Amino acid sequence: MSSKPSELALEVVRRDADACVLAVSGELSLCSAGLVTRAVSKALLDVGRVLVDVSGLRLAWRPAIQVFPSILAGAGGWPRARLVVFGADAELARTFTVLRV
């Protein structure tokens, strides 16, 4: 599923009874944050464990990075829901750290 190809794309890499792996690429912005929220939230509610590959993600709007902790909280938080975000490049990883995500 995707919004506009130049903005954001979400791909289910693997899904089974134990976990779901999603790949998110493109620009995370005010407009695309809702797409990420819906897809990751649904996966968390369905499976309970979601890994999100953000290696192809670019941050177009800094506050949008807060979507990840918001999704986890909305799904019941730890230990009920487990969310792992991986593959961030150096710039995105710094943003996660600075904003304490």
Query: Mean pLDDT across all residues, rounded?
Result: 93
N-end to C-end Cα span: 25 Å
- What share of residues is helical? 25-40%
Tally of helical segments = 3
Rg, Å, rounded: 12 Å
**Protein structure class:** alpha/beta
> Low-confidence parts, pLDDT < 50 over ≥5 residues?
1-5
Series of H and E elements = EEHEHEH
Give the tally of β-strands.
Answer: 4
The largest sheet has its strands arranged as 1-2-3-4
Largest sheet: 4 strands, mixed
C-alpha geometry: globular
Residue share in β-strands: 25-35%
List keywords for this structure.
globular; four-stranded mixed β-sheet; alpha/beta; 4 strands
Walkthrough of the structure:
The chain contains 3 helices and 4 strands. It is an alpha/beta fold. The protein is globular, with a radius of gyration of 12 Å. The termini are far apart. Residues 1-5 have low confidence and may be disordered.
Describe what is shown at a glance.
The chain is α/β, with parallel strands linked by helices.
Secondary structure blueprint with pairings:
Layout: E1 8-15, E2 20-28, H1 33-47, E3 49-59, H2 67-74, E4 82-86, H3 90-98
Parallel strand pairs: 2-3, 3-4
Antiparallel strand pairs: 1-2
